[in-house]
Amino acid sequence: MYHTIVALVEDKPGVLNRVASLFRRRAFNIESLTVGHTESPGVSRMTIVVDSDDQNVERLTSYLYKLVNVIQVEDLTVLPKVTRDLAMIKVSATAENRTHIMQTVDVFRARIVDVTNSSFIIEITGDEDKIEGFVDVLRPLGIIEMVRTGIVAMARGTSPLYVNGNGNGVHA
Amino acid sequence: MKLTGAQILWETLVREGVDVVFGYPGGANLPIYDAMLDYPVRHVLTRHEQGAAHMADGYARASGKVGVAMATSGPGATNLVTGIATAMMDSSPTVFITGQVASKLIGFDAFQETDVTGITLPITKHNYLVTHTEEIGPVLREAFYIARTGRPGPVLVDIAKDAQQHSLEWTYDDKPIKMRGYRPDLRPTSRQIEQALEMISAAKRPLILAGRGVLLSGAMNELRQFAETANVPVAMTLLGISCFPATHPLNLGMMGMHGEAWVNQAIQEADLLLAFGMRFDDRVTGNLKTYAVNAKKIHIEIDPAEVNKNVPVDLALVGDLRDTLRQILAQMQPVSHIDWLSQIARSKGDSAVRDIQNLPPDDHLYAAHVINDLWHTTSGDAMIVTDVGQHQMWTAQYYKQDNPNMWITSGGLGTMGFGLPAAIGAKLARPEADVGAVAGDGGFQMTAAELSTAAQENVKVNVAVMNNGFLGMVRQWQEFFYERRYAATPMRSPDFVKLAEAHGLTGLRVTQRGEVVSAIQQARQTDGTVVIDFRVEQEDSVYPMVPSGADLHNMIRRPMPNPIAETAEDEI
Lengths: 172, 572
Description:
The complex is a heterodimer of chains A (172) and B (572). Chain A is built from four helices and nine strands, in the order βαββαββαββαββ. Mean pLDDT of chain A is 91; it is low at 163-172. Chain A has helices at 15-25, 54-66, 98-107, 128-142; strands spanning 2-10, 30-37, 43-51, 70-75, 81-92, 111-115, 119-126, 143-148, 152-155. Chain A has 172 residues and is an alpha+beta fold. Chain A is elongated, with a radius of gyration of 19 Å. The longest helix of chain A has 15 residues, at 128-142. Chain B has three domains: 2-169, 3-Layer(aba) Sandwich (Rossmann fold), CATH 3.40.50.970; 190-346, TPP-binding domain (Rossmann fold), CATH 3.40.50.1220; 367-539, Thiamin diphosphate (ThDP)-binding fold, Pyr/PP domains (Rossmann fold, 3-Layer(aba) Sandwich), CATH 3.40.50. In chain B, strands 3-2-4-5-7-6 form a six-stranded parallel β-sheet, sandwiched between helices. In chain B, strands 11-10-9-12-13-14 form a six-stranded parallel β-sheet, with helices on both faces. In chain B, α2 (30-36) links the parallel β2 and β3 (42-45). Residues 563-572 of chain B have low confidence and may be disordered. The A-B interface holds A 9-10, 13-14, 17-18, 21, 25, 55, 58-59, 62-63, 65-71, 165-167, 170-172 and B 117-118, 121-122, 125-126, 129, 146, 150-151, 179-184, 186, 302-305, 307-309, 318.
């Protein structure tokens, strides 16, 4: 099954390579990986989706902790959480289907961010199901190009992942 | 004080207690070598950077201190790779320092540029690329800290040449090292200690699996106290050898692929396995599906990533082994396991009959005989460093090592060519020790150029080459599993006596059993490194053997001798 893992890592050169290299050499397939800044300077946050069983994800977590630049790792899979993916989709727009596309965009609460005589770029955020549903609807209309960011995830509730400047995970 | 990056490097190394470094100079580390002359550090010039890496590793294993090796950029650094991977697999505390091309050239395929941090990423505990002089001091301090704490391992620091050359105002910063992502100080909870005590007292057939973690943690006394208090027999991994006295009545010896059949049988029959600082390597477990299925398992291990990796355990105590054992011992009650110990003793008898030591004498010189005689002649007190192959297994079986940290071998990576350079490093760490390298004719030739290093540095090690004219372990697999089709295993070697003499060293040759002891004695009395060329039985095999992936209890046994010889007491 798909597991959504969040890793807080030091924002230093080469850290993304260390994490990606770990997945490769331990034979895990990355479905999606995103990296970005966090509320703490010097700390980046990775959201990684892997297709693996529980036991292997436990292994993966402890391997991640072996990386000196990894501060904290959490498997959010079974936690209540918000996950978001962002897609930009370029579709061909003709005089006949422009209105139809714009209505579809409204229904999905997406946005048109670029317009030409023959195309739109549509931006949509949401969980993966929503984006895939939207893509399915657009596909017959002619998708010219698409890009997705990969998912980011955050557990619901008050407490942050990152507590007191120190991870509560385990290291060796 | 205004210092160059290279000077800051040596200032830091000296403060870390470094007194010997092994290495090879080149264009990208010339500033480091130039500055070295002004510091009280002995440099050992090797003949190949792989030799330097194994020497640093051998130094670390023999001393418990961090071993240091240096190389230049490009080929110098890539030549270290095998040695770094060896240190990684066996958790050896080492720091590797490589020169890198000037920072403005990095990424432009400059002369002798390679991406060393990229290449060594999977084979180091951590690594650094340093492009600014001010980073050199702090990075090196972190490197030594990471190398020796937690589960030890190799750390590589790649330093751009311009960072070595630039000068800045510098004072030593000795504030405690703090890294957010590195916490080597885990310990089990008191509830987990209680659970362990409950499981131990409930066990009828407990058995300790002792690994290299016992040595790394310095838990030899605690292990012994544990074994004696609870009357638990101790089996050792290849790398655990010497962590528990071989002649102790509770010692079972080595487990696994070439462990004695009765030892592996005991593991399969145990109802509680106490895994101390070991990682259930495939050479130890055989087929995981049938491994110790009746036993509950307690794993005491400092690296959480080793817990439940190969073998699921019932209780994991993650933390330093010595501290954890002390906590357990404080509350542990004495127990006797008379039935269990006598059950093990009964199954031992059969193995003794099959033992090569008890075979009727013939004209052949067996490597196992040589090792047995080496053990006798050195009173079991030599520091033994092996290479990799059949001789390694025979040495593990027949050199009864009683003293901790006197057994050095490449276990996890199984690196041929490790023996001689590791022995040189070990001797420099422990000059008072009688250091013997045991190698095969194949592995010895992989790094035999380091004889020249031993000669130049006037380092005395005695090298016993078990020369059987084959890559023996591979030949054995070909005999057992490939219908004796000896593809690329027969090996012609140079005259090792003359090779030694060409280096200004002493070479001896032994072809008869009767010559073994006198040759060893002569080697020990001779100044300088001595190579003994033992011409041993060509097609001998290591028994018993668990074929790769087979059940631990299904071993290939040494064929029964005919007629059955009586046990020769003096050779046991």
